[in-house]
Amino acid sequence: MTSRWDVERFGIGPMATPRQADVLLVTGYVSLKTLKRIIRTYEQMPEPKWVLAFGSCTVNGGIYWDSYNTITNLAEYIPVDITVSGCMPRPEAVMDALQTLMKMIQSGEAGAYKKYKENYEYYKANQDRVLKKTVPILGQTPKNDLEGKNEDAKE
Amino acid sequence: MMAVLRVFLFSLFAIFIGLLFMGIGRKVIARIQLRYGPPFYQAFLDVGKLFSRKSITHNFVMDLGMVMSLGGLLATMLFVPIAGHVAVKTSTNLIVIMYLMAIGYLGMAMAVAASGNPNATIGVSRALTMMLGYEVPFFTVMLGLIIVNGTSSLELISQSQAGSILNWNMIRFPLSFIAAEIALQAMMGEKPFDAMIAPAEIASGPMVELSGKYLGLAFLTHAVSIFVETAIIVNLFMGGASNIFTFVLKQFEIYLITVFIEAVFPRFKIEQAVKFLWTVPMGIAVLQLILILLK
Amino acid sequence: MIELLLVPLITTLSIAFFIKYKRVTWTLFLASNGFILYKLYSIYGMWSLSYSFNTGYEILGAKFNLGVSNNPIGWYFAFFSALITLIISIFSIGFNKNSKSNVSVIWMLIIFSNLGIFFAKDWVTFFMMWELMGWTSFFAITNGKDKALDGAKYYLSLSLFGAALLLIAISLLGAYTGTFEILPSAFGLLQIINSSTKLGIVILLLFLTTFIIKSAIFPFYMWPQKVYAEGPEDYITFMSSVMIKYGIYPMAIFIVPVVGSVNLPRILNTGNVLQYVIGYLGAISAVLGTLLAIFQTDMKKLFAYSSVSNMGYILLGFSSMTIVGFEGSLFHVVNHMILKAAIFLTLAAVVFRTGESEMHKLGGLVYRMPLTFMTFLLGIIAAAGIPPLNGFGSKWMIIQALMSKKMVVFAIAMIFASTGAFMYLFRALASIFLGQLPDRYKEVKEVPLTMAVPMFIMMVIMLLVGVVPGVVMKPLTTALKAVGYNVDIASWTVLEGSLKNATIDLKIVFYMFVAGVIISGLMYFFGNKSETVPQEDNYTAGEYPEEWGVDADRFNYSYSFYQPFKEMFDPLLESISIDDLFASVGRNFEYLSTTIQGLFKRGEGAVLLFSIGVLLLILGGLII
Amino acid sequence: MTKIFILSSLSLVFVGLYGVLTRKNIVKILIALNIIETGINMLLVAFGYVEGGITPILQSDLSIANLDKMVDPVPQALVLTSIVIGLGTTAFALSLAMRYKDTHNSISIRATDEEGVNV
Amino acid sequence: MNSIVFLVVIPLIAAFLSLFLGNLNKITMYIVTLFNLIFSISVFMSGKIPFNVAIGGWKAPFGINFVVTDITIYFLLLVNIAALMSITMVKDIKEYQFYSFYFVLLAATNGMVLTGDMFNFYLFTELSTFAIAGLVAYKRDRLSTGAALKFLILSSTASLFSLSSIGLIYKTLGTLNFADIALKLTKLNQASYNLILILFLASMLVELKIFPFNLWVVKSYEGSITSVNMFTHGMLGTAGIYGAIRILLIVFPNMYNTNISKVLVILSVFTVLIGEIGALKEKNLVKVLAFSSMAQMGIFMFGIALGSFESIKGSLYIVVSNYLAKLVMFIVTKQYSRAVDSKNYIDMKGLGRKYPILAISFTIAALSLMGMPFFAGFWGKFSIVISALSLDRLSTLGIAIILIASVIEGVYYLRISHTFFVEKDVNSVNISRVYSIIPFALALLILVVGIYPNSIEQMLFNVIDEIKNAPNKYINIILSLK
């Protein structure tokens, strides 16, 4: 993205920490474990922040739509401003998406981060429902927790 | 009153030139990598954006530290003679400049360590080790020039090189110029010696917790440090120009050299960097020193 | 003049009497320090004041009498150490509220010997006060705690060894010059060196070794870190800031004038052999002190080595043998006194509240003890020699002197040491105050008022001396002029260097710094508002450290802070270790001691040894 | 003539000294000590000897005449007291040796004096 | 003034009577010692010093005479004061032997100091070592019997040597009177002079605890009870020092141009070294004091052997400081070891906190022994150092070693006084306060001499002046009776 397609000429560049970033690019399928990290990273980004969902996996789960440990729609968990469709979309598509995002920001309509703040409970409920399963079990594996898991799968 | 105005003017000028150099620098690197690169005013845009964003802080030390770091570097800048005249009529002593620069780094280090993020503290420990690394050869170079000119005031040293290009220190003492160049590379934290920023290893090192205006202040500090360091090298080795324009041009030449080196070199490990700094530039500087002492 | 020495004695006795009531003893201690400071202030300028006590003991044909005279440089040292001691004694009222053993009795005796050393008229009085200070500080360091014994024993054997050398030197000097007075004996030593150089050099080196031991210079740099880690913190503040100067004072009044004016073979026509000896001792202890300080984990040991490197700077200043260098060193004596007292007061406050002195066990105390943090921060900036504060002036003058005399190696060593200082000073700041606050210190409170006031005073002094060095330089230059050096009285804020137009006006440096801070402050307020975030909320690549059992202690990066740097120097530090040398000497003595005990335990060889003795006598008498 | 007396008493002294140094048994040491003592006493008397002298007793007018040929009586007086001292010391030492036997249950001088350690 | 003889006669009579007195012994002991002390003080006050008493009317060179000059009266006072202080330490002793031995010791030591005749001096030395051996054996256990026996064997061989030297003196000079010997010795040829000196020196050095001769010191100190230790140190030691001054300095003055003084210097340096290093690892407090007294005597002998009047004055200061300090230390050791009933100083942790006066006086005594300024020992060490450095290379090396050794002494003494002040609550222990009066008084005395040496400077000046012009001062007092 950066050297061959020179996205830097639009002033766009990769930043090492969410603190310094404006746009969160979520690429590839989102498993439950990564969702937990995404939420934390999203919350660590200062205002105003935007999310670009990349590829069909984040929009509707893509080819992993029926897998037990991925989520199908990222928008339920964190507000997404703009999505790029295509199973691994072309770099030009991403650059175009970013430029349209810039225009949307200029015009003021891209404000998803405000939504996250207003109905935070809705997002929180969705997140908790999913994230119950990802608590790391250090050492022992409690028996009752395992039964809980397969009811979920059945549901 | 005049002094306050001059101080304010000099600071703005320094920040402007610094950001300009950064922008052009990124453009030059892009060109080297066969791509267009951001517009030259990109640095101004970034700083503007950063100052408009919200930001997070851990405790009052972060705010105090960042303000102190930019303040320190601006104070250093006020002591460097720019094209012959200084902000406030005082002696531009090299030792004072060297110690004042330390405020900048100490302030930044304090703010960053206050965030409690281990990446930041690792970055700072590398930065300070690197500082010890480049400070020694740089001072040896300065020592040589001070002994030759018999004065430690930067103004007198730059005036001693007036006249044709032949009696520039760069020509009279080529070895110390090379050593100073390498040390400058490390001083600015450019590519071969940027183990402290190292985005891949420690998530941009000290800047990991800086967001919004703190990152903006860090950008400005870096800009002013570029301006100050290049100004020192110009005064020391290229005779300090008579008018501002040639002075800035000379500064840009120096900055270009560092950008060229930065574009092509991979990163040193921190102890490799210090070992390198203490052998190669230090060796050259000591050689030059011996030549000076023998003369 | 006499009441200056009598008051500490009387207070010692009265404190010993009231030893049970802690509050009474410490207020008495404070009162007497206050009186001493006032008295010193009142005798400023009266250089002819003196008092002598006739002991009636005949030596070298004359009745010896203990003499105390108000010499200018002695006054300079005594006044500033009295000032610092007063501030520390305010601090130690609060500090000793719940400590079992009371160190004020011994401490008062040390202050008596301190005044005696600075005002001694002749070498024997100097030696008596020196030796008194030696053994009293042993008791002060141990202060009733057994774990402090081996550090204190190491210190005691060194200081007694030093005193033995001093006694030999004084007797040799007395025997050859016929007088014990300090000034005439300096001229006497000059004649001896010029006439029979070997003997003169031996005497001078004997004097030098004693003073080097007491000021922890290169060969004897190991004892501060053993002693500072063990002693009671408020006394250690006094010891590390004031007592380490006892070696410097006699160097200033005796060694430097003699070495400066003796005609010995000169090297590179910059200085004679002895100057280079002093210089290299200073340079090595500066560099070694900094390196070892970087690798310490205990905060008190770290600052012990920082004192060693600061003493190195002072020696470097002496070795340049220029007026600027000499002034710079004496100015650094007071600067170091102030900043070291500030730093150790904060350390004492930290130990008082947390009881912990290992740096990797501390962290994040800025949240709970902001005032202590501010004093520590100013102390760090001053110790690093950064302009607005007081450390810079003296370092600047010393470097100027070294550069003007083209002593290149010493200048580079000085810069290496002072840049290295940033490393360990910042490490201390980061590990103790910044970073994550462990849960056990969550309810640590700020220090009580009696301890906060001295810290605040120290902050003010550091800033004052930093911006207006005249406060210290004026009395210093008047003292030097009174002694006889041709020096012009320093102005309030301008410091003169020795190179061409090398004068800096610290006032302007301060204004520039303030201007810079104002401009960046404007920039700061120009930006959007920021909201504070709890300390756990850090970028850790999305992870939740608490879930993986990483508590605040393990999350802080402060255990092996400069690990890569340490690996570079490990082979060097392993090879030269003076400490093993002294330890092996100690072991040999103890091994010998057990064999002798064995010999005397059996005891049946008595008659055999008796006859051997007789044979020896016969051998001596009849044959040789 | 007096040479022989001095040499013989000196040899006695050296025999006694050899005995004290080498013997382990305390009683033998004391005996050797007495040998030295007698040797020294003989030496003292030998010092007072005058060639062809007569006993220094003033009992008849005859002896007052040749006073100078009389042997010097003073060392003999000294020897008297030193014999008494020698007796006293040996008696006391022997009583100590008896108690030494009970406490160290060995008569050799090498026995250690530490409690409980009996070599 | 021939009542001076009572000083020797009365204790001897008391020695015989003690068999029958049973439990009256303790009181008679106090009476006799007090008599001796008061008598010698009255002689000291009477100002008729110096005078000479011919025993049995026989004139000087022939009969035995008691001589009282400045040196004698000072040492007499020292001996009797030490006696008085040591008997206060005697607790519930019923056996009469102890008292008779004590009386003999008292008589013998007073005799040694008073006598002016060589054989008489030998006699009293023999008596005192005999009495000390008896007192050491008082405890009747394994340690004390072994110590007493070995001490007896060593001291009797030594006295035999001095007997032979007396014989030699009589053969060559024909007289046994100190003054007469001093006069005639100058005319003697070198070889026999050396022989006499060596034989006499051998027996003297045993008492003066100099290295090859002092193997008995540690054992006898360890084996005996505290009061006997104080007897050995206070009375026998002081009398031995008097003997050294009187005989080595006045009778054998030109010892200094023979090499014997060089050997003495080396031996005394060795003694100091052995004494200090020996004490370094020593746990038992009494043995530490034994080693330290050996070292102090080594320094004293070093001062004497150097020969210059400066160093002799120094060694006299050392004698005063050692005399006072050791008395204090023995008393403190006794109180503390009885309180914790173990002689090991580590078990005495924290006692200083409960009984500070005892610990402080112990520390003051230790500091004076180390030669710290403001204490009596410093002036001694200082003048010895000055005189040693201005002499030849050997003495400079010697004084350097001695100073290093006193560093070691400093370390182990202050370590002991540190253990006294360690924070440890010892409330199960009780020592009656009355015992802290004597040590504190002596410690104050040390402090006074340390701060204002002028107090005893005058006395030492008389001693030095008497040694300096020995011929007319001492000799014609005795021979004036001709």
From TrEMBL, chain A:
Keywords: Quinone. GO terms for cellular component: respiratory chain complex I. InterPro entries: NADH_UbQ_OxRdtase-like_20kDa. One of its GO terms (biological process) is aerobic respiration. Pfam families: Oxidored_q6. Residues 7-100 form the NADH:ubiquinone oxidoreductase-like 20kDa subunit domain. One of its GO terms (molecular function) is NADH dehydrogenase (ubiquinone) activity. This is NADH-quinone oxidoreductase subunit B. It comes from Caloramator proteoclasticus DSM 10124.
From TrEMBL, chain C:
Pfam families: Proton_antipo_M. The keyword Transmembrane helix applies. It is a multi-pass membrane protein. Signal peptide: none annotated. GO terms for cellular component: plasma membrane. It is found in: Cell membrane; Membrane. InterPro entries: ComplexI-like_HydComp, ND/Mrp_TM. This is NADH-quinone oxidoreductase subunit M. It comes from Caloramator proteoclasticus DSM 10124.
From TrEMBL, chain D:
Belongs to the CPA3 antiporters (TC 2.A.63) subunit C family. This is Membrane bound protein complex subunit mbxG. It comes from Caloramator proteoclasticus DSM 10124. It is a multi-pass membrane protein. The keyword Protein biosynthesis does not apply. Pfam families: Oxidored_q2. It is found in: Cell membrane. The chain crosses the membrane at residues 6-22, 29-50, 77-98. GO terms for cellular component: plasma membrane. InterPro entries: CPA3_antiporter_subunitC (IPR050601), NUOK/Mnh_C1-like (IPR039428). It comes from the Bacteria. The keyword Signal does not apply. PANTHER family: ANTIPORTER SUBUNIT MNHC2-RELATED (PTHR34583:SF2). Its main location: membrane. Keywords: Cell membrane, Membrane, Transmembrane, Transmembrane helix.
UniProtKB/TrEMBL annotation, chain E:
Its main location: membrane. It is a multi-pass membrane protein. Residues 116-399 form the NADH:quinone oxidoreductase/Mrp antiporter transmembrane domain. Keywords: Cell membrane, Membrane, Transmembrane, Transmembrane helix. One of its GO terms (biological process) is ATP synthesis coupled electron transport. The keyword ATP-binding does not apply. GO terms for cellular component: plasma membrane. The keyword Transmembrane helix applies. One of its GO terms (molecular function) is NADH dehydrogenase (ubiquinone) activity. It holds the Pfam family Proton_antipo_M. The chain crosses the membrane at residues 6-24, 31-51, 63-84, 96-115, 121-139, 151-173, 193-218, 230-251, 263-281, 288-309, 315-334, 355-376, 396-414, 434-452. It is found in: Cell membrane; Membrane. PANTHER family: NA(+)_H(+) ANTIPORTER SUBUNIT D1, NADH DEHYDROGENASE. Belongs to the CPA3 antiporters (TC 2.A.63) subunit D family. This is Multicomponent Na+:H+ antiporter subunit D. It comes from Caloramator proteoclasticus DSM 10124.
